[in-house]
């Protein structure tokens, strides 16, 4: 059934041979090769390396430190995560001392992290560099193939599966495994390192999407009527009937939530640990095929046919943000790993890049994209028809320009593009199977074993599963700005004062409750009817008192206000007749 | 007079130095004294002032005298010695004790003989020994005059007393002392109640005064010399300060001192206070950590231990051990298998014992008569078996039995031929009370039993032995009964079956006849069914005594029976037996019914089998299904349903589902279409997808790598109308979005209600209508509006036309933020900046984590925390450098520090 062709297709090879090759420098770094040699883990974006340093490294590299001081300062600043508190005006000496000590520790930590980044994470991302008049986007995969090593070469291939329809793919967070789903019911799990098929099953019904759960052992497939969860061996574990006929699935790995959008436009969040349905909301915007999780904060974004993009969290029934991105329907969207950039594509042949901190368009590119994806290093892949374009931002000014392009042979229709994590590889799911091409500089060269380990052993995987379960975040931590967690809550708006009727009703209720209380039986003489009546009255009075007091207070404030009003509002000539306050 | 006295006192020292002289002049002094007194008397005899005036004058005099103190002192210094007779106490008016009136009466004794006076003085003399701080006047008197003659007299008197009584001198003296306590003041003298002398100043007691009485005693001279020496270099001593002041001063001094002492700790304490972590017992060596290590240090101390040690560490022994000790040990060893075996064996035995015990317990508790009867029978049987083996026992048994039988015959308890029974029968059973009737019944029963025994013995041709127990007989009995029942049942069933044959011609084929027949048939069926049930029940009851063990479970047997499809009395019986057993163990009657139904089902199933000859499995299944249904339904099934039902049902189900699925698909497609119609923009891709969905399991061929449908669709040129719609789609969308935003804004910040009056209010005059709404209403409305505008402006999406940011509060997320600023912080920014860094191990390098997460106090368990020790600390040193330098603070202090640290 499945034919693995770990080589470049014949057509493209022919093209390569015919092409005259200008001299060029090709800088590329194979992350996998390097990472075999190094022991230290790496830190992508936010997290820092966590392995202990080897002392000899510091000894040998101490002399080198001077020249890169400016650079170091930059990285230290990055790891300080913002400004230190200003202790100048602080009155409290004790607090001042404590904060100073804390800051010092933070500084040390940041410095150590910066050192690690400098010395222990030596892998740099590769990139293509053009010389003279040549352009990077003219470089074909064949010419890249000629330059790279054998291991990388293995990542260039087309897999042709003609029968079971357009394929969609998903990678595990560490990029080691891939799940592919053919529209007509073909599910396959592939080990990407050995390029061996682990399992394939035929479900004999439409499969619209496939997504990995927290590790390679489980994946969910959106099938004709319901989504199902399978394990690696293809055993059906769960049928999630509540989700209905789902068109897109997403997994929030920090929260262990499986999010789905079904064909009625209902958004479901299900906790995959306990099976609890966390949220079930109607988007009210019809069916959609554009759904993506913001990796930074866990907010799910949906692109709708009305040109809007809505962002959701599992604890609110209304969208957090609703933005009009395109005049036509939104065909796809993608998030930058740092969570600040969003790319959307509309049917009106525009690709827009948004800054999510300001909710403003940064850049508008022309072109159609059926599918979009950001790589770990921030390259943006857009696929349409049988053409894949990679946009890059090398100036650092968030100005995306053409970087590479690739057209798939024989006009296979691209269904999904997805960068493989920790590899310079772009996976393409198309109508006739899937392909894999090399995109230099797309993957994160230094991995952090706290985040994801491409060389994970089964023992490590088990460990990690437990750890990630222990660190599971509750669904309410999903918010637009997760740094707000742990800070001071902004002052709430004042609540409305209860109206007079409400207050009266409240008092009535209190009085009734007081009346119903049983009076204790007292000794002879103190239990006379008159005394009992008196006691009852007392109880009622006591119940009434707080309300009355409140009323009196209010009256007083009202009177005061009136008085001041009178003073101010009276004509000047009459103001002297206002009764003076008795002092 | 007071002056004189004072003078005299000032010269006291001198008088003591030349004592001898004083003694000599004693007589002279005495005469002078008497003269003085006579002078006074003379004065008093003259014209007198009133007493009040006199006292006043006296007082004045006294004051003057005190003023002119210095002068007098200087006088005193001039002359060497001047003796002056002291004024009597009465005269000096020291106390009010002496009334002026009484004084007059006292005048007479002034002229008396010396002896009396001397005796008075004598008293005084004795006084001064112990009443030192007391009446100084008296004391002086002593010194003046008592020493001479009086003392001699005294001595004589004492001697006399001694002679008479033969007691020692001291005894009398002591006695006297006690008796002669003179109370010179109204109040006892004390710090708070000083004598006048003390108050006025000059009433000091000198050391000489104190030395005087001990003159001549051993060590006196030494003491005197010392005093003289001190006198020579004497300096005046200030009076001590009040106690409170003194103490305050003392405290101040101590404070100054201790402050100096304490401040040296200040840096140490400050350093500890500022340190983020305090370490206790860092450099303490805990010593041995294992028992083995401790044991290796053992040294033999006592005799016994030494002896043992010598044996153990004997070279020979060690060698021997080395040589074959290990072998011995090996021999000692038990293999794991053996051990396991042994253990398992023990465990088994134990469990067996336990189970046996439990069983015994249960059996012991059984109260059922039947059970005991059966048990006894078993016992008998066992005994009979024994008899066969042992002739002796057999003989014994036979004898016993014979005896029993004889006894029975004699009592004739089992026959109603006894006198008692006959009489009762004569009188009539009905006339008897319950007890008697029961007794009669019992007798009869007994009789019946016995006779039946005989009968069976007669009938059973197989053996004459005792082993043919009545149980078996019962079984045979029951067999017969069940046979009968079986027959009856079969017949009824036949009737039921036969019912189906309906004559096709004749009168009976007439419609009303047919109807009537049907009715009757139904009734008959009904009856038959009832009868069947009854039979079943009867069978059950009949078989109640049957104890043949039913090995197979009911269901099993039932299934097998079906397979066999044979007519089966036995099978039913076994079933019944099982049921009966159930009943036997205390099940309710309802079970009976159930079982009966089951039985019916069996028959039904069997019939099915016979009739249709369907595959056994199939029928089995069906029967299994049917079993759960009620009897009636089952019958219906039998009557109506010819084929095996299950397959049919499945077919229905599947076809239904097919239909359902199809219809659903159809609906889907419809929905899809309608959606598409509604949507202004038609998407090619979507259309394709829709198609795919509607008939996903069929068609769409793939021809050599190229999708036949997909690409074609996408390459199709959009029609003109579509293009137009595309072009104008934007306007629509934007408008909609605007509307949406407006709606949401209104939802989150509702617009204020328009001011309205009650309908009809003020409308009957035109004045108010012209005026319009009251101004306050309008104002309120305006305020609310303004407020809303402001809040809208404050929204995050106020300036973003294309964005709606929800401002709804998420209550669940609220709990992730602090309600109030934590204690030591005063500004929000500072707090937020202080918590900006994550301190977890995922976010920090290994070297920094420890420091970031170190607790406030680090100590080792089991290590004593020693009190703080002084060490030199430089004032401006950083605390961290000293962090690890051992113990620093007392534990309770550090605890306080912990608390404080926690708060931050």
From TrEMBL, chain A:
Compositional bias ranges of the Basic residues kind: 521-535
SMART domains: BING4CT (SM01033), WD40 (SM00320)
InterPro entries: BING4_C_dom, WD40/YVTN_repeat-like_dom_sf, WD40_repeat_dom_sf, WD40_rpt, WDR46/Utp7
Domain BING4 C-terminal: 402-482
Repeat (WD) residue spans along the chain: 323-364
Alphabetized UniProt keyword annotations: Nucleus, Repeat, WD repeat
Cellular component aspect of the GO annotation: nucleolus; small-subunit processome
BP terms from Gene Ontology: maturation of SSU-rRNA from tricistronic rRNA transcript (SSU-rRNA, 5.8S rRNA, LSU-rRNA)
Cross-referenced Pfam families: BING4CT (PF08149), WD40 (PF00400)
Region (Disordered): 487-541, 559-583
SUPFAM superfamilies to which the protein is assigned, alphabetical: WD40 repeat-like
Superkingdom as given in the UniProt entry: Eukaryota
Basic and acidic residues: compositionally biased ranges: 559-570
Subcellular location: Nucleus, Nucleolus
Entry protein name: Transducin/WD40 repeat-like superfamily protein
From TrEMBL, chain B:
Assigned GO CC terms: nucleolus; small-subunit processome
GO biological process terms held by the UniProt record: rRNA processing
Listed Acidic residues bias regions: 102-131, 139-153, 689-702
Biased composition (Basic and acidic residues): 1-11, 90-100, 669-679, 869-884
Basic residues bias spans: 18-46
Domain of life of the organism encoding this protein: Eukaryota
Sorted UniProt keywords: Coiled coil, Nucleus, Phosphoprotein
Principal place of residence: nucleus
Coiled-coil spans in chain: 514-541
Region: Disordered, residue numbers: 1-154, 453-480, 573-592, 669-716, 738-760, 869-904
Compartments it resides in: Nucleus, Nucleolus
Protein name: U3 small nucleolar RNA-associated protein, putative
Organism encoding this protein: Theobroma cacao (Cacao)
